[in-house]
Design goal:
The protein is an all-alpha fold. It contains 15 helices and 2 strands. A two-stranded antiparallel sheet has the order 1-2.
Length: 289
């Protein structure tokens, strides 16, 4: 239950950004919602009586977390980092749109920091739910796998974010490969139709420069997984169980390589069947990644 409670919290916090746009009222509402989660986490860890009386946890997710917190002894900082990640995302996207810029991340280091705050924090919480504390090698492996999963998540969402005018390839990589942002945002594979749905048009071709940048990001993700793989044998079995997500990450990277690092192919865009098979990859590769 502890694992699912932390995942549910992450979904709830992440959902605050679903209606993000440049409207000032909308941005204030998102900031207030994020502050609600930050305050709720702080109150959950406050000593009895310090919050002015008995705290009533107003959502099912908060009640579930309160129920498992004492047994799992979760670190408060990792919950706070989930909020930090969404605030960072909000700040980056808002700044980019206010400057009529497509690129969300100014540089690769900002992407790494975002992935550490979000994806890696979830793995740290998973380890704590299984009783893994103060294990330096486990923390190193979790950090690397989390950052790899973060890169892959951004790659998976690249097509859909491009459709709303956001590019997840960092600015420094775009400059390195001389990428024209319009070549991604205006790609004809996915454009909004009159019903504001995404519609397919196979006449567009992905630029070679975008493919090179995608390959570099995929290589960074693979290198992170390789670091974790090299030390996994020395980790407690509970920690290894939390890193099994690396198997589906490797499967995605193999698919991407097979599609010559083109995110806009049919196979990479329409991965619903592949996603349904992720459990099979856990079972088949969990002991060998």
């Amino acid at each position: 239950m502890a694992y699912f409670a932390t995942r549910a919290l992450n979904v709830e916090i992440g959902s605050t950004l679903q209606d993000m746009n440049s409207n000032d009222t909308n941005l204030i509402a998102i900031q207030l919602r994020l502050q609600f989660w930050r305050d709720s986490i702080a109150q959950m860890y406050a000593p009895n009586g310090s919050s002015g009386g008995h705290q009533s946890y107003s959502t099912p997710v908060l009640r579930a977390l309160q129920a498992v917190k004492s047994k799992s002894n979760f670190s408060q900082i990792f919950f706070e980092r989930l909020v930090d990640a969404r605030e960072m995302d909000l700040d980056l996207v808002t700044s980019a749109k206010s400057n009529n810029d497509y690129m969300v991340f100014p540089n690769y280091e900002d992407m790494e920091r975002y992935n550490e705050l979000s994806s890696s924090s979830l793995i740290y919480l998973c380890m704590e739910s299984l009783g893994v504390f103060e294990c330096e090698e486990a923390d190193i492996a979790a950090s690397h796998v989390g950052r790899a999963l973060g890169i892959i998540s951004l790659l998976k969402g690249s097509v859909h974010r491009a459709a709303i005018g956001e590019i997840c390839i960092p600015r420094d990589m775009c400059e390195k490969y001389s990428i024209d942002p319009e070549s991604i945002v205006a790609h004809t594979l996915y454009q909004r139709n009159s019903r504001n749905d995404l519609s397919s048009d196979q006449s567009g071709a992905t630029s070679t420069n975008v493919i090179h940048a995608t390959e570099e990001l995929a290589t960074c993700a693979y290198n992170h997984i390789s670091v974790a793989r090299n030390i996994q044998s020395s980790l407690p079995k509970e920690a290894r169980a939390c890193l099994i997500q690396a198997t589906t990450a490797l499967h995605y990277l193999e698919q991407l390589k097979g599609n010559k690092y083109d995110l806009f192919t049919d196979e990479m865009v329409n991965r619903s069947q592949s996603s349904r098979n992720d459990v099979m990859h856990y079972l088949k590769l969990g002991r060998t990644w």
